[in-house]
Amino acid sequence: MKSQQTSARVSGYINASLSAGFFGLIPLFSIPVLKTGMPLPSVLIYRFAFGSLFMLLYLVARRISLRLGWGDALRLSFLSLLYTLSGVALFTSYSYMPSGIATTLLFSYPVFTTLLEALLFHQRLNWPTYVALALAVAGVYLLSGFGETGETKLTGVLLAIFSGFDYAVYMVVFPRMRIHKMNSVKINFYVFFISMLMLVLYSSFVYGGMAPLRGWSNVINLMLLGLFPTMVSNVTLLRALNLIEATTVSVLGAFEPLTAMCVGILVMGEPFTWAVAIGFAAIIAAVMILVTGKK
Fold it and tell me: Which helix (H) or strand (E) holds 162?
């Protein structure tokens, strides 16, 4: 029994780390498309459309039923709304600051997850979790470049932090919903499909419709955006939430800003400084403390 619990926890750690790492690839595939002039809602619509398509193909190939009751449909619609708001806020923040910093600020969600778990569900936290959380926050602070000021910078910071809060609510609510035992790919298929419909309505009213797909580079980037930071990241996230607690999953999400900053530095030419290096080290230390403290 103990070995089974250990195996399940290790699997949870692996899924949470993979989820965060793939999620950090969002700027790599989305920013080139945004730079071509495609409006933000259209980028998100195509992201969710390709993600839904990949998951539908998987479900059909595995002959998994798509049947859904009204109650479960309402629950999935609520999750879709949370995910849509978080995605819109994060992508909008890219207009106000470097992508690596914006995605790093999304990592405020472990703080919100911890507070929500403690305040709403009276979860007791041990000292390794507090130490890991403090190191992770310090690492994010160093990575984010808060020394810079400016009104547009503040707008981006607030948008990224709101995205993090919304994501934390998603992570805390999901394991306590009846649908959490449903197939994780099926859950994500409906979440993304409903999110896509919401964004189509929003785009129709605000932008007069969706932007057409132009150029193979945009098609490839959007397909990869739908596959790795959308399908793979979220399927592994839900699996992790079913194996380990949300607070642990959120702290392991430290791999997300690490990936985003690596992409920003290596691909987009963003600066690598001592503050960034120390921030990286602090986040890695936070993850190691969390894992060893809960062995």
Answer: helix 151-173
pLDDT in tens, 118-131: 888 877 777 877 78
Mean pLDDT value of segment 57-77: 93
Between 280 and 59, the more confident residue is 59
In sequence order, the 6+-apart residues with CB closer than 8 A to the CB of 35 are none
Give the span between the Cα atoms of 287 and 295, in whole angstroms: 12
Torsion angle defined by CA atoms of residues 100, 101, 102 and 106, in that order, rounded to the nearest 10 degrees:
100
Interatomic CA distance for residues 188 and 47, integer angstroms: 13
The enclosing H or E element of 75 equals helix 70-93
What DSSP designation does 112 have?
H
Q: Tell me the two tokens of residue 92.
A: 């909008």
- Token pair belonging to 200: 């189509």
The residues near 285 (Cβ < 8 Å, ≥ 6 apart) are 135
How many whole angstroms from its chain centre is CA 238? 11
In angstroms, the CA 63 to CA 241 distance is 24
Which pTM does this prediction carry? 0.79
Give the Cα separation of 101 and 24 in Å (integer).
11
Q: Rounded to whole angstroms, how far apart are CA atoms 295 and 290?
A: 9
Closest CA to 19 of 223, 259, 280: 259
Query: How many Cα atoms sit within 13 Å of 27 on the Cβ side?
Result: 31
One DSSP character per residue, 275-292 reads HHHHHHHHHHHHHHHHHH
